[in-house]
Amino acid sequence: MDNTQVAVVGGGVSGLNVARLLTAGGVSFELFEARDRLGGRVLTVDGSGAVSEDGYDLGPSWFWPRLQPGIGGLVEELGIASFPQSSDGDVIFERMSREPAQRYAGIRQEPETMRFVGGSAALVAGLAGKVPHDRVRLSSTVMGLQLGGGGVRLTYRDGSGSERSVNAEYVVAALPPRLLEATIGLAPAVPPQNALLWRGTPTWMAAQAKFFALYDSPFWLGAALSGTAQSMVGPMLEMHDATTQSGGAALFGFVGVGPVERQSMGEQALTDACLAQFARIFGPEAQTPTATILKDWATDPLTATTDDTTSSGHPSSAPSWVNGPWADRLVLAGSEASPHEAGYLAGAIEASALAATDIRRRLDR
C-alpha cells in the first residue's frame, strides 16, 4: 500500500491548483481523477466533439480579471493568453412567440468578459504543467475514505478495474460536495448536518446544457449583430458568439429546457429546436451550420447526480463544510466551497488556494 502526505480527489481546475500549490511547497501528494483526462467540468472540443487544445468550451469559458483578481493573477503568472468576449454590435431580445424579436443597440461590457485563447483547456494545461505527472492517476475512481491510524485510507478502482488503496495524512476533496456525498463512502460517516449540506448544494454546471452551432464564417457580424441574444421563448434562454480566437465561427446558447424534459425530447428534437431559434434570431443562414454540438451535463455521471435533475441553482458558501471526526483530516476545495466566487472558475481557484494553505498549516503544525 502506498503512502502520501495528501490525497487530492478530483483533477479539475480545483484539484490541479491544489496540486500545483502543494508541489511548490514541497508537499507529497497523489491526485486521483476518475476521468481519463484532466479538467473535470472544463471541456474544450473541436468541431467533431473530440477533446482539443483549441476549440469550443462545453463547460465554463469566461472570467472577469478586474472583478476576480485571484484568477486574473494566476492567468498572468501562468502566461496564458486571453481575449475579450465578442460584444460589438446589436443584441436581440425575444419577448413572446407571437411577436417578432426586438433589436437593441449593444452596450459595452463593464467589467470586460474574457476568454482563453484556445479555450478553457489552456487553463487546465497551464496548471497541469506545474504538477509532476507521476503523481497524477487518471481513470482512478475513489470509492471510499476511512479514518484510522492517524490518517485516512483511500480506496480506489484503477483503469484496469483493480481495487487499490493509499494511506494519506490528509484528503482534499476537489469535487462538488453533492458528488462527494453521493459517490464516496466515508467511515465513519460525516455528521448529518454535513451530509445534508453537501447533498443540498447545487453542483455548478450539473443541471445545464449548452448547444453550439458551427459555421464557415461569423455571418451575424455582417448584419451588425453581436451574437448576443436573450429569449423568453426558448428553447435557449441566452445566446452568445462562441467564435474562437483562431477563427472558428460559432454561436452557442444555454438551453432553458430542464434536464428531465431534455431527455424526453431527445437530442435530435432539441437540436432542431435550437437551430430554428438561431434562424429566427440571426437569420436563415443560422439554419445550416457545418456542425452542431450539444453537451448535457445532467447526463454526465462524473458531474451530476439524480438530485441535480430536480434541485439546481447557483451554489452559495457555507460557514463550515466538515465537522465531527473528519474535521481534522478532510478539506473541501471544489468551486462550490469558495466563500466568494462559488460556481465560477475563480471560485475553483479561490477554494483550492484556501485548501492548500490549510493543508500546509496543518502539516507545519
Any overview of this molecule?
By secondary structure, the chain is an alpha/beta fold. Helix content is 25%, strand content 27%. Strands 1, 2, 9, 10, 11, 12, 13 and 19 form an eight-stranded mixed β-sheet that branches. Helix 1 (13-24) runs parallel beside helix 3. The model has no long low-confidence stretch (mean pLDDT 95).
* Structure classification: alpha/beta
Poorly predicted segments: none
Overall pLDDT confidence: 95
Continuous helix count: 9
Please state the CA-atom Rg, rounded to the nearest Å. Answer: 21 Å
**CATH class division of the largest domain:** Alpha Beta
By DSSP, the count of extended strands is 19
**SSE order, one letter for each helix or strand:** EHEEEHEEEEHEEEEHEHEHEEEHHEEH
Helix coverage percent: 25-40%
Q: Tell me what the CATH architecture of the largest domain is.
A: 3-Layer(bba) Sandwich
Tell me the fraction of residues in β-strands, as a range: 25-35%
Give a short account of the largest sheet. Answer: 8 strands, mixed
- Overall outline: elongated
What is the CATH topology descriptor of the largest domain?
Answer: FAD/NAD(P)-binding domain
Number of domains: 2
- What is the distance, rounded to the nearest whole angstrom, between the alpha carbons of the first and last residues? 26 Å
According to CATH, the homologous superfamily of the largest domain is FAD/NAD(P)-binding domain
Write a short abstract of this structure.
The protein is an alpha/beta fold. The protein folds into 2 domains: 2-42 and 124-204 and 303-364, FAD/NAD(P)-binding domain (3-Layer(bba) Sandwich); 49-60 and 87-118 and 207-299, Polyamine Oxidase, Chain A, domain 2 (Alpha-Beta Complex).
